[in-house]
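ok so I'm stuck.
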Amino acid sequence: MAMDLRILSCNGHGSFLLASSPYRNRFLLPRPENGGHHHSSRKSPKKITSSSSSVPTHRVTVHNRQRGVVHHFLVPEDQYILHTAEAQNISLPFACRHGCCTSCAVRIKSGQIKQPDALGISAELKSKGYALLCVGFPSSDIEVETQDEDEVYWLQFGRYFARGPIERDDYALELAVGDE
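replied:
not stuck anymore, here's the structure
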């Protein structure tokens, strides 16, 4: 069975494994360092710069559906939401940290998020109220709800796969990673 593997760079920060085989549809998988899905408690946050006292701070409410908890915290308008949450010991889902995947995707219930570097979601999904916390800045008080990353991925790319949902081929991924 032949397999075509290529490593793609996402804005020079994260890498993804693009694989195809005669038996599977093409799929795009994030390549996290430890091979699995992350939560912010597993990796130290990026350095948070101190905001000027003149920068507005907004109240952020995150309904974490996967863990069944609600987090309330303050985020300066010039700071990423995910990084600020991590600095306050709040664990939220993430993977790439650079806006290239959908692990930290949320649906905005109220308020506005600026996300100029959110490459992992389309303009169409942004217009429907989806955002990425890792590269999102609050521009008002916001209330958001975490999403299942596979669901968001399907909303964005599902129409390109005529045979149904994308199947993750962990065996092929293991073989590919083992050959590096």
